[in-house]
Amino acid sequence: MLEIYMIDETDSIKPEIQQLVTSILRHAAKEEGISEKAEVSVTFMSDEEIKKVNAEYRDIDQPTDVISFALEEMSEGEVAIIGQTGIPVALGDIIISVDTAKRQAEEYGHDLNREIGFLALHGFLHLLGYDHLTKEDEVKMFGRQKEILHSYGLER
């Protein structure tokens, strides 16, 4: 089962949102065929804090809604680390801006729960290797995202 560690730097995320994030990420892991033990962290922060992360790691000096850092992703020249049996695979970290999520929820006409659930899933798919840099990748990722949201029952 997917183990999820949550950090709420804003002290504003209600238990029902935390439960939704846990539930949708475990559902997505099942849908994606992740059968081995795996873990992911989800951190909720302000626009001010995510802007710092975005500037440092992506050279973009503005806040964003979600950032993912995949731990199993290899860069050119890196050597793969072979995991030991029984030790969970660390998929990576998902960082969500609560401020941006609130604005987007209002803009899209749905509640904060739905927006944060959507952002958590979006970040999780990035950890699994999905991306939207090209039109072809975007169609694949957004299509999969929509399928998982639908099968979970989290609609707009």
Mean pLDDT: 90
Poorly predicted regions are: 74-83
CATH class: Alpha Beta
The CATH superfamily turns out to be Metalloproteases ("zincins"), catalytic domain
Strand content: 15-25%
Kindly identify the CATH topology: Collagenase (Catalytic Domain)
Please compute the radius of gyration using only Cα atoms: 15 Å
Anisotropy-based shape: globular
CATH arch. level architecture:
3-Layer(aba) Sandwich
Count, helices? 5
> SSE string, helix = H, strand = E?
EHEHEEHHH
How many domains, in number, for the residues? 1
Biggest sheet statistics? 4 strands, mixed
Strand arrangement in the largest pleated sheet? 1-2-4-3
Helix content: 40-55%
According to DSSP, the number of beta strands is 4
Classification by helices and strands? alpha/beta
* Cα separation of the termini: 27 Å
